[in-house]
Amino acid sequence: MLPHVLLCLIAPLLVLAGDDGGITGATSSAEAAGYSCDASKCKLPNCACASTSPPGGLSPSDVPMFVVFTADDAVQSYTLDSVNQFLAHRQNPNGCAPKMTYFTSLNFTNYTLVTDWYVAGNEIADHTMTHVGDPPKDEINGNLIALNALAGIPLTSIAGFRAPFLNYSVNTLKLLAAAGFTYDSSAAASIPVTDPGTDAFWPYTLDNGMANDCLEVEGSCKGQPVLPGFWEIPMYAFFDSAGAAGPHLMDPWLDIPSGSTKVNDTATLEYMKNTFTAHYTGNRQPIGLYTHPIHLSTTYPGVNPSNSTINMINEFLDWAQQQQNVWIVSNEQLLAWVRNPVPLSQLNDFAPLKCSTPQVDASQKICNGIPGNEDGLLSHCAFSDFPFYTCYGCPETEPTVNNPNPPQQIPDGQQARIRLPANCSTPFWDPIGGKCLCTSSQCAFNDVSRPIGPNGANLTGGGTGGAAGASASPTGQYIPFNGELFTVPPSVWAATVVGLVGAVVGAMTVV
Ligand SMILES: *[C@@H]1O[C@H](CO)[C@@H](O)[C@H](O)[C@H]1NC(C)=O
Ligand SMILES: *[C@@H]1O[C@H](CO)[C@@H](O)[C@H](O)[C@H]1NC(C)=O
Ligand SMILES: *[C@@H]1O[C@H](CO)[C@@H](O)[C@H](O)[C@H]1NC(C)=O
Ligand SMILES: *[C@@H]1O[C@H](CO)[C@@H](O)[C@H](O)[C@H]1NC(C)=O
Ligand SMILES: *[C@@H]1O[C@H](CO)[C@@H](O)[C@H](O)[C@H]1NC(C)=O
Ligand SMILES: *[C@@H]1O[C@H](CO)[C@@H](O)[C@H](O)[C@H]1NC(C)=O
Ligand SMILES: *[C@@H]1O[C@H](CO)[C@@H](O)[C@H](O)[C@H]1NC(C)=O
């Protein structure tokens, strides 16, 4: 029998993940898209027309076949166990372990595991704070602030967004571009690549508006919204034996394939292979495994995924990886290649596909996202609905949309932990000693501020958290965009940030 507290945790996670992101047919058409783009004017790396052909004019035989792997929702040991059972034992053609993208929402997230996952090389992206569709600005930007403060993720590293329930609007896209995101990945590529009217476009910028989901999202397409340099990475559906009438987008293995009356792993494997092959032998548009990992966790109390489904997904990946030039990647890696599309012959030297391990001495006691180093140093934040761990000091209250970075709760006899500053990378930052272990250009890091504060104020990392209380107040020092050091008296600081964003020490204009 499960303790009551566990049951409380299970129900919400599954509810959040349920029914998230299904499509039943085409979500766009050429007519609804009304898309036009002049490729002679729109050029890489910062502009790309929506196109079914590979970027850079490459011929498909020179193009890697990318399999994007993503996970959505809260990050917990259970969800990472789930992802690990598909990826941990794999290697890409260059010998690197595959990286993936985690679209993180914060309710029920164990912050320290986000740090670990990021430091291990994965991409951390935004999925709103509390998992809401068509999100207001604070749901999107509060997630950035909390992930930066409590998981030590540099703001510039959080480049992508996926809307919960894949429910986004034109407004969502505008909010994302305004907050300095690089891409959204909520739109569906819903028509098979073998269909002449396919909407399986390579990632493209919104210089000429959207070309996907034109039948679904009001006010988009026919040239709208115009967001220069902001990317859409379509989510590529699989199609079962019903072809265009049988699309499967997220967690296809939870769906009943056309012609079956219940989940059928044999049929699912068959159509996943067929769709892969159609992409692989055609224009090599990427495909994606878009997962809610909680459904496949074998360690989460009360969840009993079928072994056959887990084995089927691994069989699919084994099969895909046996083919030439297949790479399992994060969205960030895919986009890096699209913006700079080098042919297969140069791929081994392509930096974004490489892997490196931060050189931190294993004997160092430092809370840095590397389990061996941080052992014994984590703060346990004992909130009743979901206790979590962090390297960066517990907040007095759980982060909320109205207050994503509450004041730090400092245990008796200890000092406040100092959060990741804008010029040190996560594995080298010691939040207890408040110092950067690395000063060489090899590992130094320069975060850039983002206009995610109130009234578009630019924020960068740092500080100790919170708006009130002398000991928990920020240092008041930050380096704004123009590089001039500026000191805010603590009293002014506190007055300015109360009820706003807490004390991410940023270039907030004091007025
Ligand atoms: C949270 O993280 C801590 C530290 O890594 C770990 O011991 C604990 O099992 C995790 N709990 C969950 C539910 O993720
Ligand atoms: C998420 O967390 C917030 C604040 O902790 C809480 O008010 C809200 O009910 C939670 N939402 C869900 C769906 O659990
Ligand atoms: C999208 O989310 C908004 C806000 O939660 C909700 O009002 C709306 O009904 C949702 N739309 C769809 C299509 O689910
Ligand atoms: C499952 O799918 C396979 C392959 O399409 C088919 O041969 C088999 O009859 C299906 N099984 C059930 C129970 O529907
Ligand atoms: C599923 O696989 C695990 C590990 O191989 C095994 O321990 C378990 O008994 C299997 N469950 C079923 C229902 O076959
Ligand atoms: C980062 O910035 C702080 C504050 O300006 C400075 O003291 C420190 O030396 C810098 N660290 C590195 C590694 O550049
Ligand atoms: C934030 O930075 C951007 C880019 O440098 C700049 O355009 C904008 O004016 C800044 N906003 C504020 C409030 O300083």
From TrEMBL:
GO annotation, biological process: carbohydrate metabolic process
SUPFAM superfamilies associated with the record: Glycoside hydrolase/deacetylase
Keyword Signal part of the UniProt annotation: yes
Gene3D superfamilies: Glycoside hydrolase/deacetylase
Protein name: Carbohydrate esterase family 4
Signal peptide limits: 1-17
CDD domains hit by this protein: CE4_CDA_like (cd10919)
UniProtKB keywords: Signal
Keyword Transmembrane: no
